[in-house]
Amino acid sequence: MWLRLKENHGNQVQEIEAFLAQQNLSFEKMDLAKEILYRLDLGSKSLEDLDFPASVDVLPGENPYPLVSLEAKPERTRIVCGAHEIGPQKMTLIAGPCAVETPAQIQASAALVAKAGGHILRGGVFKPRTSPYAFQGLGAEGYPLLAQAARAHGLLSVSEVMDVEQIPQAAEYIDILQIGSRNMQNYSLLKALSKVQKPVLLKRGSAATLEEFLLSAEYILSGGNESVILCERGIRTFSDHQRHTFDVAIIPELKARTHLPVFADPSHATGKASMVLPMAKAALAAGADGIMVEAHPAPEHALSDAAQSLTGEGLHKLGHELFALEGFLQS
Ligand code: PEP
Ligand code: MN
Predict the structure, then answer these.
(1) Ligand 1 proximity of 268 Cβ (cutoff 6 Å)
(2) CA dihedral 99, 103, 104, 109 (to 10 degrees)
(3) Does ligand 1 have an atom closer than 6 angstroms to the CB of 203?
(4) Which ligand 1 atom lies nearest to the CA of residue 178?
(5) Is residue 180 lining ligand 1, measured as CB closer than 6 Å?
(6) pLDDT tens readout for residues 14-51
(7) pTM of the full predicted structure?
(8) Could you tell me the distance, in angstroms and rounded to a whole number, from the CA of residue 98 to the centre of ligand 1?
(9) pLDDT tens-digit readout, 81-132
């Protein structure tokens, strides 16, 4: 079991440690950026016999991820980002191209996203491509292009950081920093982003279990950054009718276990533009707090992920239908 002392714990540390010593309880202490955690071994004692000081949160059981767990923090996390609030009260729509390609392309994309009612403009500038010969993104010069296009259309921005050294420039321009699927278990990147004062959108690894996913989020919270958004984006299976397999069932399960916002990306999950809207609806109905999709002003000319990119019209229809479904689900 765990005990948690929140920020500004002052002399409560002495109080709790004196209590543990007096009760003869062995513990392991973790002094984190914002809190102190104690992992306790109760031995033969039972929880009911122990009258812990009121200053500590008591987390019974063998929860492996005490900071992200809903058990530890029953109110759901809301992330304030500019004028927008990410959380359970309102669906967040993120849309935009796979990659920032040119100033005109990202400006046109931003216009489509705003018209569809989206809140956040996406666009990769460092692209994790399977082939070294595929378009790798514009690099850091893409960050200001994305930021300007977002600002010009009243949107926030999100972009992936693939490497620790990309963080300072990304953080200068971009509102939300994304950890891609391939880097979900890049622990140096997770630790580095735990020290940044920006929300982090963490995508699920394509072969990651729910527990591994939540433990990666735990890394970011344990380093001091509590603004983490989880994003399901498909896993590897034997299915051959979609790019990955959209694991819609992880959405209610994540919501049952964590207070963090849960998003879904049906574009990377399915790889097919025709599947994006039905799977986005499925995700929203399953409890997702936000949806991320790829859209391009001219998908046939997209330099990456053309087959899964929605047209402006497709994105508009998606916005229209998702906001209607959101209204229905809330009624
Ligand atoms: C992306 O969202 O740009 C991306 C590369 O997705 P993923 O990391 O899920 O493959
Ligand atoms: Mn993509």
Answers:
(1) yes
(2) 40
(3) yes
(4) 2
(5) yes
(6) 999 999 999 999 999 999 998 999 999 898 888 888 99
(7) 0.97
(8) 8
(9) 999 999 999 999 999 999 999 999 999 999 999 999 999 999 999 999 999 9
**Strand 79-81, strand 84-86: pairing:** antiparallel
The 3-state secondary structure of the chain, one letter per residue: CEEEECCCCCCHHHHHHHHHHHCCCEEEEEECCCCEEEEEECCCCCHHHCCCCCCCEEECCCCCCCCCECCCCCCCCCEEECCEEEECCECEEEEECCECCCHHHHHHHHHHHHHCCCCEEECECCCCCCCCCCCCCCHHHHHHHHHHHHHHCCCEEEEECCCHHHHHHHHHHCCEEEECHHHCCCHHHHHHHCCCCCCEEEECCCCCCHHHHHHHHHHHHHCCCCCEEEEECCECCCCCCCCCECCCCHHHHHHHHECCCEEECHHHHHCCHHHHHHHHHHHHHCCCCEEEEEECCCHHHCCCCHHHCECHHHHHHHHHHHHHHHHHHHC
* Average pLDDT for 147-172: 98
Q: Which atom of ligand 1 is nearest to the CA of 98?
A: 3
- CA 124 – ligand 2 centroid, Å: 8
pLDDT tens by residue, 300-331: 999 999 999 999 999 999 999 999 999 999 99
Ligand 1 and 119: CB distance under 6 A: no
Using a 6 Å cutoff on CB, does residue 206 contact ligand 1? no
Task: Confirm or reject: Cβ of 225 under 6 Å from ligand 1.
Answer: no
Instruction: Categorize the per-residue pLDDT at 72 as very low, low, confident or very high, splitting at 50, 70 and 90.
Output: confident
Q: Which atom of ligand 1 is nearest to the CA of 183?
A: 8
What the block records as the tokens of 133 is 């010969």
